Amino acid sequence: MTVLVDAATLATRLAQGGVLLVDCRKDLADPQAGRAAYESAHLPGALHAELDTDLSDLGKQGLGRHPLPDAEAFAAVLARWGWTPEVEVVAYDAAGGAMAAARLWWMLRLVGARHVRVLDGGIAAWQRAGLALDVAPAAMPAPSRVDVAWDTRQLVDAQHLRDGLADGSLCVLDARAAPRYRGEVEPLDAKAGHVPGACNRPFQDNLREDGRFRPADDLREAFTSIIGAHAPNEVVHMCGSGVTACHNLLAMEHAGLHGSRLYAPSWSGWIADPARPVALGAEPGAPA
């Protein structure tokens, strides 16, 4: 199954039935905005996923602004949605997949789900296609029984990250905008900068002007030029809190570069330990 689905194909699949559609819209500047947007209008039949509660556990300390929840907590969310491993899931948002459709896609992949895709271009692409939105609350499906576990092979912790950068066995891609990566601005976290040795790959570079993903061949060429001789499974993604980093991971999968991993705590988790080093400016040898 491809990792992306276009609006017309999704409309056909929804008419056939059997698709779990999830609205993942989120605005970090306004915690209530995503839910409010969903309640105002959403794709027909879509349920809503809240980043802060359904896709994160904000009670965990030292693991960034959006810590990965325990697998049991995520299982409870999936059970509430009526999910089973055979169900096809399509996630969408209003940020080209970055906030936070790619996060849900990645979390489902992390528990072994393979029937999961992201709506290419999100709700804007749906509307551009002339397809209708719904204002009525979606009917909740019958709860299911879900037992899942995280595939920890797809995750990297801080020590592994540091060791891999030191010996050159890992290529770390930071998905934040360049000014944040260089430490020139920091609107969200307590300290500015980036992990020494990490390369900058802003997630926005994955998208065309209309918010859809760039062609797979273009993305493959772009990522290959950054990761060099590293195999995809030697690539680790990060961002500010482990959300937009999933967009780069999704883009690599779309490009046929399979198996990259995530440092889920990301920058906000890295700086939770004041002993960890911080770099400012561009990395030596990095593209201007």
What does this structure look like?
30% of the residues lie in helices and 10% in strands. By secondary structure, it is of the alpha/beta class. The chain has 2 domains: 4-128, Rhodanese-like domain (Oxidized Rhodanese, domain 1, 3-Layer(aba) Sandwich); 155-270, Oxidized Rhodanese, domain 1. β6 (171-174), α7 and β7 form a beta-alpha-beta unit. The radius of gyration is 18 Å and the shape is globular. The model has no long low-confidence stretch (mean pLDDT 97).
Which properties best describe this structure?
single chain, Oxidized Rhodanese, domain 1, five-stranded parallel β-sheet, 10 helices, 10% strand, globular
Quick synopsis:
The protein has helices at 7-16, 33-40, 71-80, 101-110, 122-128, 158-167, 178-182, 216-227, 245-254, 266-270; strands spanning 4-5, 19-23, 47-48, 88-92, 116-119, 171-174, 199-200, 235-238, 261-262.
CATH topology of the largest domain: Oxidized Rhodanese, domain 1
Percent in helix: 25-40%
What order do the strands of the largest sheet run in, or round the barrel if closed? Answer: 1-5-4-2-3
The total domain count is: 2
SSE string, helix = H, strand = E?
EHEHEHEHEHHEHEHEHEH
Low-confidence runs = none
Radius of gyration: 18 Å
Question: Number of helical runs?
Answer: 10
